[in-house]
Protein backbone atom coordinates (compact mmCIF):
# COMPACT_ATOMS: atom_id res chain seq x y z
CA UNK A 1 0.00 0.00 0.00
CA UNK A 2 1.43 3.32 -1.11
CA UNK A 3 2.15 5.76 1.63
CA UNK A 4 0.36 9.10 1.47
CA UNK A 5 3.10 10.79 3.36
CA UNK A 6 5.31 13.12 1.38
CA UNK A 7 8.90 13.88 2.02
CA UNK A 8 9.54 17.32 3.39
CA UNK A 9 10.97 19.61 0.74
CA UNK A 10 14.63 20.32 1.08
CA UNK A 11 15.04 24.01 1.85
CA UNK A 12 16.95 25.84 -0.84
CA UNK A 13 19.62 28.28 0.22
CA UNK A 14 18.44 31.86 0.18
CA UNK A 15 19.99 33.94 -2.58
CA UNK A 16 22.33 36.63 -1.42
CA UNK A 17 21.35 40.22 -2.10
CA UNK A 18 23.64 42.53 -4.03
CA UNK A 19 24.52 44.22 -0.75
CA UNK A 20 25.50 40.89 0.80
CA UNK A 21 27.68 40.06 -2.21
CA UNK A 22 29.33 43.47 -2.12
CA UNK A 23 30.05 43.23 1.60
CA UNK A 24 31.36 39.67 1.18
CA UNK A 25 33.71 40.78 -1.59
CA UNK A 26 34.73 43.91 0.31
CA UNK A 27 35.65 41.84 3.37
CA UNK A 28 37.95 39.63 1.31
CA UNK A 29 41.44 40.24 -0.02
CA UNK A 30 40.12 41.89 -3.18
CA UNK A 31 37.84 44.49 -1.57
CA UNK A 32 40.35 47.33 -1.67
CA UNK A 33 41.36 46.45 -5.21
CA UNK A 34 37.75 46.62 -6.32
CA UNK A 35 37.39 49.98 -4.57
CA UNK A 36 40.52 51.33 -6.28
CA UNK A 37 39.41 50.18 -9.73
CA UNK A 38 35.93 51.69 -9.40
CA UNK A 39 37.25 54.97 -7.96
CA UNK A 40 39.83 55.28 -10.74
CA UNK A 41 37.42 54.46 -13.55
CA UNK A 42 34.61 56.70 -12.24
CA UNK A 43 36.86 59.75 -12.42
CA UNK A 44 37.44 59.31 -16.16
CA UNK A 45 34.64 57.30 -17.80
CA UNK A 46 32.75 54.87 -15.53
CA UNK A 47 29.18 55.93 -14.55
CA UNK A 48 28.96 54.39 -11.06
CA UNK A 49 30.46 56.33 -8.10
CA UNK A 50 32.79 54.49 -5.68
CA UNK A 51 30.84 55.52 -2.56
CA UNK A 52 28.78 52.27 -2.33
CA UNK A 53 31.93 50.15 -2.57
CA UNK A 54 33.65 52.33 0.03
CA UNK A 55 30.62 51.91 2.31
CA UNK A 56 30.71 48.13 1.80
CA UNK A 57 34.40 47.96 2.70
CA UNK A 58 33.83 49.96 5.90
CA UNK A 59 30.72 47.98 6.84
CA UNK A 60 32.57 44.71 6.43
CA UNK A 61 35.94 45.73 7.87
CA UNK A 62 35.72 48.70 10.24
CA UNK A 63 39.46 48.43 10.87
CA UNK A 64 40.03 49.43 7.23
CA UNK A 65 38.10 52.69 7.43
CA UNK A 66 40.97 55.16 6.97
CA UNK A 67 42.90 52.89 4.62
CA UNK A 68 39.79 52.50 2.47
CA UNK A 69 39.23 56.28 2.39
CA UNK A 70 42.88 56.82 1.41
CA UNK A 71 42.78 54.16 -1.34
CA UNK A 72 39.55 55.64 -2.70
CA UNK A 73 41.00 59.16 -2.70
CA UNK A 74 44.32 58.25 -4.33
CA UNK A 75 42.63 56.11 -7.01
CA UNK A 76 40.06 58.81 -7.74
CA UNK A 77 42.73 61.52 -8.08
CA UNK A 78 44.80 59.30 -10.38
CA UNK A 79 41.69 58.57 -12.41
CA UNK A 80 41.01 62.30 -12.46
CA UNK A 81 44.45 62.87 -13.95
CA UNK A 82 43.47 60.33 -16.62
CA UNK A 83 40.29 62.31 -17.26
CA UNK A 84 42.35 65.50 -17.44
CA UNK A 85 44.66 63.89 -20.01
CA UNK A 86 41.64 62.84 -22.08
CA UNK A 87 40.34 66.39 -22.08
CA UNK A 88 43.78 67.93 -22.69
CA UNK A 89 45.01 65.78 -25.55
CA UNK A 90 42.36 63.24 -26.51
CA UNK A 91 39.11 65.17 -26.39
CA UNK A 92 38.20 64.65 -30.05
CA UNK A 93 39.21 60.99 -29.88
CA UNK A 94 37.72 59.94 -26.53
CA UNK A 95 36.54 62.82 -24.35
CA UNK A 96 33.87 64.03 -26.75
CA UNK A 97 32.38 60.53 -26.89
CA UNK A 98 32.07 60.46 -23.09
CA UNK A 99 30.32 63.86 -23.04
CA UNK A 100 27.98 62.90 -25.88
CA UNK A 101 27.18 59.61 -24.18
CA UNK A 102 25.69 61.57 -21.26
CA UNK A 103 24.02 64.14 -23.58
CA UNK A 104 25.67 67.01 -21.73
CA UNK A 105 27.36 68.88 -24.56
CA UNK A 106 25.78 72.27 -23.79
CA UNK A 107 26.30 71.98 -20.03
CA UNK A 108 29.88 70.88 -20.65
CA UNK A 109 30.70 74.06 -22.58
CA UNK A 110 28.98 76.17 -19.91
CA UNK A 111 31.05 74.44 -17.24
CA UNK A 112 34.25 75.15 -19.18
CA UNK A 113 33.45 78.86 -19.18
CA UNK A 114 33.25 78.86 -15.37
CA UNK A 115 36.94 78.01 -15.10
CA UNK A 116 37.86 81.50 -16.30
CA UNK A 117 36.13 82.94 -13.24
CA UNK A 118 36.56 80.31 -10.55
CA UNK A 119 39.52 78.16 -11.57
CA UNK A 120 40.29 75.37 -9.08
CA UNK A 121 37.54 76.50 -6.73
CA UNK A 122 34.90 75.07 -9.05
CA UNK A 123 36.57 71.65 -8.80
CA UNK A 124 36.42 71.85 -5.01
CA UNK A 125 32.75 72.85 -5.15
CA UNK A 126 31.64 70.29 -7.72
CA UNK A 127 33.86 67.41 -6.64
CA UNK A 128 31.96 67.16 -3.36
CA UNK A 129 28.55 66.86 -5.06
CA UNK A 130 26.85 63.99 -6.93
CA UNK A 131 27.88 65.61 -10.24
CA UNK A 132 29.85 62.99 -12.25
CA UNK A 133 33.49 63.76 -11.49
CA UNK A 134 34.59 62.55 -14.94
CA UNK A 135 32.89 65.57 -16.48
CA UNK A 136 34.80 67.88 -14.17
CA UNK A 137 38.12 66.23 -14.96
CA UNK A 138 37.65 66.18 -18.73
CA UNK A 139 36.47 69.80 -18.73
CA UNK A 140 39.55 70.76 -16.70
CA UNK A 141 41.82 69.23 -19.31
CA UNK A 142 40.04 70.94 -22.19
CA UNK A 143 40.27 74.27 -20.34
CA UNK A 144 43.99 73.57 -19.71
CA UNK A 145 43.60 74.36 -16.03
CA UNK A 146 46.98 74.46 -14.26
CA UNK A 147 47.85 70.84 -13.50
CA UNK A 148 49.09 71.64 -9.99
CA UNK A 149 45.89 73.50 -9.16
CA UNK A 150 43.82 70.66 -10.62
CA UNK A 151 45.67 68.01 -8.62
CA UNK A 152 45.55 69.93 -5.33
CA UNK A 153 41.86 70.73 -5.78
CA UNK A 154 41.07 67.10 -6.60
CA UNK A 155 42.94 65.81 -3.54
CA UNK A 156 41.12 68.27 -1.30
CA UNK A 157 37.60 67.71 -2.58
CA UNK A 158 37.77 63.95 -3.14
CA UNK A 159 39.65 63.36 0.10
CA UNK A 160 37.10 65.34 2.10
CA UNK A 161 34.18 63.56 0.44
CA UNK A 162 35.51 60.03 0.90
CA UNK A 163 36.71 60.66 4.45
CA UNK A 164 33.20 61.86 5.30
CA UNK A 165 31.55 58.82 3.71
CA UNK A 166 33.98 56.45 5.42
CA UNK A 167 33.53 58.13 8.81
CA UNK A 168 29.73 58.09 8.56
CA UNK A 169 29.65 54.36 7.85
CA UNK A 170 32.29 53.75 10.53
CA UNK A 171 30.33 55.70 13.14
CA UNK A 172 26.86 54.50 12.18
CA UNK A 173 27.76 51.24 10.47
CA UNK A 174 25.58 48.83 12.47
CA UNK A 175 22.55 51.11 12.21
CA UNK A 176 23.18 51.78 8.52
CA UNK A 177 23.57 48.08 7.78
CA UNK A 178 20.28 47.31 9.54
CA UNK A 179 18.44 50.06 7.65
CA UNK A 180 19.83 48.90 4.30
CA UNK A 181 18.89 45.30 5.06
CA UNK A 182 15.29 46.30 5.88
CA UNK A 183 14.82 48.80 3.06
CA UNK A 184 16.92 47.55 0.13
CA UNK A 185 14.42 48.81 -2.43
CA UNK A 186 14.22 52.31 -0.97
CA UNK A 187 18.00 52.53 -0.65
CA UNK A 188 18.40 51.52 -4.29
CA UNK A 189 15.83 54.11 -5.37
CA UNK A 190 17.55 56.73 -3.21
CA UNK A 191 20.92 55.98 -4.79
CA UNK A 192 19.40 56.25 -8.25
CA UNK A 193 17.84 59.61 -7.35
CA UNK A 194 21.23 60.90 -6.16
CA UNK A 195 22.86 59.94 -9.46
CA UNK A 196 20.04 61.55 -11.47
CA UNK A 197 20.24 64.67 -9.29
CA UNK A 198 23.93 64.92 -10.07
CA UNK A 199 23.31 64.92 -13.80
CA UNK A 200 20.47 67.43 -13.40
CA UNK A 201 22.65 69.75 -11.29
CA UNK A 202 25.38 69.62 -13.90
CA UNK A 203 22.88 70.36 -16.68
CA UNK A 204 21.62 73.43 -14.78
CA UNK A 205 25.06 75.01 -14.30
UniProtKB/TrEMBL annotation:
Keywords carried by this UniProt record: Membrane, Transmembrane, Transmembrane helix
Keyword field contains NADP: no
Transmembrane segments: 32-58, 65-86, 155-173, 185-204
Keyword Membrane attributed: yes
Gene Ontology CC: one annotated term: plasma membrane
InterPro entries, alphabetized: DedA_domain
This protein's name: Cytochrome B
Species for this entry: Zavarzinia compransoris
Amino acid sequence: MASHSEASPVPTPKKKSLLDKAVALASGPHGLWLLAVVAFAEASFFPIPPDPILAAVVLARRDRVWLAAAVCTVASVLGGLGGYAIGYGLYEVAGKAVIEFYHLEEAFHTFQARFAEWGGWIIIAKGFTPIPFKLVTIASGVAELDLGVFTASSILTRGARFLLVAWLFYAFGPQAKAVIARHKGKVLIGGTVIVIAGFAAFALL
